[in-house]
Amino acid sequence: MGRAARDPEAFAELYRRHYPAIQRYLRRRLGDASVVEDTVAETFMGALRGIARYEDRGLPFRSWLYRIATVQASQARRRAARVAMERLKHEPASCSKEEPPSADRVRAALLQIAPRYQAVIALHYFERIDLEQIANTLGVKLGTVKSRLSRGREALRRKLEKLGVRR
Question: What is the CATH number of the domain that holds 153?
Answer without folding.
Answer: 1.20.140.160
